């Protein structure tokens, strides 16, 4: 079964590789996206990717995904902790969304412990470094194949 997934990255994730590498790793977003697409292709899964620093552009990407995507894996960055607009966008579409984080947000500052989005997502993956993205693909694949 060939699924189509949207990989969404929010603010500051275009800075991967140079941004706080002790927290977020040394790999660039381009390198990570290429590795994720290759990993997904082995499973016959198509990944389309989009990154924006702008909240409304992420809202639009979620809205548009309803026309083609079977699932979304989303690192919302700091908007995780603030965005009612993204929460409403996720609630507005009938597409399962996995919220993911590179870092373990629960081991960090208290303001990162609260997510506006988790309650309307299928699930949350956090703290596994770049592997959080790969685990999200696995989780969506299993969900879409009704095997979990
Ligand atoms: C993040 C965690 C957020 O708290 C932070 O604002 C980010 C990245 C992560 O991937 O660990 O930008 O989503």
From the structure above, extract its key features.
alpha/beta; globular; 35% helix; 148 residues; 18% strand; binds 1,3,4-trihydroxy-5-OXO-cyclohexanecarboxylic acid; 5 helices; five-stranded parallel β-sheet; 5 strands; Rossmann fold
Please outline what is shown here.
The chain has helices spanning 21-24, 29-42, 55-65, 84-92, 131-144; strands at residues 4-9, 46-51, 71-75, 97-101, 123-126. With 148 residues, it is α/β, with parallel strands linked by helices.
How would you describe this structure to a colleague?
With 148 residues, the chain is of the alpha/beta class. The protein has a single domain (4-143), classed as Rossmann fold. The protein is built from five helices and five strands, in the order E-H-H-E-H-E-H-E-E-H. It has helices spanning 21-24, 29-42, 55-65, 84-92, 131-144; strands at residues 4-9, 46-51, 71-75, 97-101, 123-126. Helix 3 runs parallel beside helix 4 (84-92). The longest helix has 14 residues, at 29-42. The radius of gyration is 14 Å and the shape is globular. Bound molecules: 1,3,4-trihydroxy-5-OXO-cyclohexanecarboxylic acid. 1,3,4-trihydroxy-5-OXO-cyclohexanecarboxylic acid binds next to loops. 1,3,4-trihydroxy-5-OXO-cyclohexanecarboxylic acid (DQA) binds at residues 12, 75, 77-78, 80, 101-103, 105, 112.
